[in-house]
Amino acid sequence: QEAAHSSGWSKTVHLLETVISTQEEAKRLAEDGAPEGTAVLAEEQTGGRGRMGRKWHSPSGKGIWMSVVLRPQLPLLTTPQLTLLAGVAVCTAVRQATGVQAGIKWPNDLLAGGRKICGILLESSLSEGELNYCIAGIGISVNLVSEDYPDYIQGVGTSLRIERGGEPVDRSALAGVVLAELESLYALYLEQGFQPVRERWEAMSVTLGRQVAFHTPQGRNEGTAVGLDGQGGLLLRDSAGEIINVCSGEIELI
Ligand code: BTN
C-alpha cells in the first residue's frame, strides 16, 4: 500500500503566470490523468475562489496560490479528514519554514495572532458515485503588506511577512516545504488512518477549548469546542451540556 503510494506521488510542479484559478488548472490536469502529487502554482489569480462561494484575492507575486491533485482510493465519507490533513500539513510547513506560530481554526483556516494567514479549499470530483479525485487548493498570504489589500489585511487577515515584523519569506522555499509535508502526512494517513492526523490537528488547534458560534438551519447556536469526531467533524458542548456535532460549514471563535 505504502510502496504503491510513494511511487505514485508525482513531484511535477506546474508554475504558471496568471490564471483565473489554480483549482481549474489542476482539475484539467486531473481529468487528463495527472498522478496525485501533481501541483499547480500561479503568480496571480484573477478569479481565485474561497470556501462558501467567496472570492480569494490573489495579487501577483505576493502569495502561494497552489492546487494539488489527490487520488485517495477511499470512501467519499473520508474527504472531511483530508480537509483537516491539508491544514495540518500547511501549518507544520509554515511553522518550520517561517517561524510563524500558526494555529488551525476548524476545519482548516490557519491563523496567526487570531488573524487568517491561509485558507484551504478541498474540492472533490465523483465518478459513478465514487470519489474520483480531490483538488486541495491552498492560499497562503505570504508577503502581502497592509496596502495590498487594506480591508482584509487590516481586518480579519494578516500575512507571514507582517507576522515576522516586515521580514519577507522565500515563497519557493515555503512552497517546497508545504508539498513535502503534504506528501509525508498523506502517506502516513494512507498507512495508519486518521488517528495520527487527528492528534496533530488537535495539538495545532486554536479552536479546542474555545467558545464558538455556528449556524444551523434552526439559527445561530453557541458551544464550547471539545474535540474532533472520527470523521473530522467538530464536537461542541452547548449550554445544556449536550454534545453537538458540526460536520460542515463555518464557525466563529468568540
Ligand atoms: C478559504 O479560506 O475560503 C479558502 C481559500 C482557498 C484559496 C486557494 S488559492 C489556490 C486555490 N485556487 C483558488 O481559486 N482557491 C484556492
UniProtKB/TrEMBL annotation:
<dbReference type="InterPro" id="IPR004408">
    <property type="entry name" value="Biotin_CoA_COase_ligase"/>
</dbReference>
<keyword id="KW-0547">Nucleotide-binding</keyword>
<dbReference type="Pfam" id="PF03099">
    <property type="entry name" value="BPL_LplA_LipB"/>
</dbReference>
<keyword id="KW-0067">ATP-binding</keyword>
<dbReference type="Pfam" id="PF02237">
    <property type="entry name" value="BPL_C"/>
</dbReference>
<dbReference type="GO" id="GO:0009249">
    <property type="term" value="P:protein lipoylation"/>
</dbReference>
<dbReference type="InterPro" id="IPR003142">
    <property type="entry name" value="BPL_C"/>
</dbReference>
<keyword id="KW-0436">Ligase</keyword>
<dbReference type="GO" id="GO:0005737">
    <property type="term" value="C:cytoplasm"/>
</dbReference>
<dbReference type="InterPro" id="IPR004143">
    <property type="entry name" value="BPL_LPL_catalytic"/>
</dbReference>
<protein>
    <recommendedName>
        <fullName>biotin--[biotin carboxyl-carrier protein] ligase</fullName>
        <ecNumber>6.3.4.15</ecNumber>
    </recommendedName>
</protein>
<dbReference type="GO" id="GO:0005524">
    <property type="term" value="F:ATP binding"/>
</dbReference>
<dbReference type="InterPro" id="IPR008988">
    <property type="entry name" value="Transcriptional_repressor_C"/>
</dbReference>
<dbReference type="InterPro" id="IPR045864">
    <property type="entry name" value="aa-tRNA-synth_II/BPL/LPL"/>
</dbReference>
<feature type="domain" description="BPL/LPL catalytic">
    <location>
        <begin position="2"/>
        <end position="190"/>
    </location>
</feature>
<dbReference type="GO" id="GO:0004077">
    <property type="term" value="F:biotin--[biotin carboxyl-carrier protein] ligase activity"/>
</dbReference>
<dbReference type="GO" id="GO:0016740">
    <property type="term" value="F:transferase activity"/>
</dbReference>
<keyword id="KW-0092">Biotin</keyword>
